[in-house]
Design brief:
A hairpin with a 2-residue loop joins strand 3 and strand 4. The protein is 39% helix and 21% strand. The protein has a single domain, classed as Rossmann fold. The chain is of the alpha/beta class and 194 residues long. The protein has a seven-stranded mixed sheet with strand order 2-3-4-1-5-7-6, sandwiched between helices.
C-alpha cells in the first residue's frame, strides 16, 4: 500500500485557502476515483481505495499544518511503510509561482512548517513531495495573510487546472514512481492570461 498525504488545516474557515492546496488536490483525486473519506485514525481523515492499480490510503491530517507529522508518522508506523518509496506528501509552496508544480524525491522543508513537522516526526527527509505553487506575497502582504488567504476568482481558474494536473501527477507516482512523475510534470506551467 502507498500513502498519499495532503497537507492543510481542518475547518470550514480554511477550506479554500492557499495553505490547503494539499487538501484540495486530495479531495479532487478522491472524488474522481470514487474514494470516500470515511475513516479517522492517527489524527487524520482517511480514504482507502485503488488508484492507477495501486492500493492507496489518502490522508488529510486534522492536527493543523504545524503538527502534520503526528498523523503522517503514526500512519507510516502503523502500516509499516517505507517513506522513501511508499509516501507522497502534497503541500503548497510560496517559492513556486501560481500555476507551477514541482515533484521531488526528497529535500528540505524549505520553510514550510507542515513539511518540517513531517521531517521531524519521521526523522528523515527522504520521502517524495509534490508542491503546488501559490506564489510569494506581493507588496506589504505578510506570508501568513498570503497562505491563509483565499484564492481570487482569477487564481481559482488557474488553480482548477493545477489541481487536475496534480491529481494526474499523483496517479503517475502511484503507477510509475517518482522519477517518471518528475519527468512528466516538473516542467508544467498553467498559461496565465496577461
Amino acid at each position: 500500500m502507498k500513502l498519499v498525504v495532503g497537507l492543510g488545516n481542518p475547518g470550514r474557515e480554511y477550506e479554500e485557502t492557499r495553505h490547503n492546496a494539499g487538501f484540495l488536490v486530495l479531495d479532487y483525486l478522491a472524488r474522481s476515483e470514487g474514494i470516500a473519506f470515511k475513516l479517522s485514525r492517527f489524527y487524520a481523515e482517511l480514504g482507502r481505495g485503488q488508484v492507477s492499480g495501486a492500493d492507496v490510503l489518502l490522508a488529510k491530517p486534522l492536527t493543523y499544518m504545524n503538527r502534520s507529522g503526528l498523523a503522517v508518522g503514526g500512519l507510516v508506523r502503523w502500516y509499516k511503510l517505507d517513506p522513501s518509496s511508499e509516501l507522497l506528501v502534497i503541500s503548497d509552496d510560496l517559492d513556486l509561482p501560481l500555476g507551477r508544480l514541482r515533484i521531488r524525491r526528497q529535500g528540505s522543508h524549505g520553510g514550510h512548517r507542515g513539511l518540517l513537522s513531517v521531517i521531524e516526526e519521521l526523522d528523515s527527509h527522504e520521502f517524495a513531495r509534490l508542491r503546488i505553487g501559490i506564489g510569494r506575497p506581493a507588496g506589504a502582504e505578510s506570508v501568513i495573510d498570503k497562505v491563509l488567504g483565499s484564492f481570487t476568482a482569477a487564481e481559482g481558474q488557474i488553480l482548477d487546472e493545477v489541481i487536475a494536473v496534480a491529481a494526474d501527477a499523483v496517479r503517475t507516482w502511484l503507477s510509475a514512481g517518482t522519477e517518471e512523475a518528475m519527468n512528466r510534470y516538473n516542467g508544467f506551467q498553467v498559461e496565465i492570461p496577461g
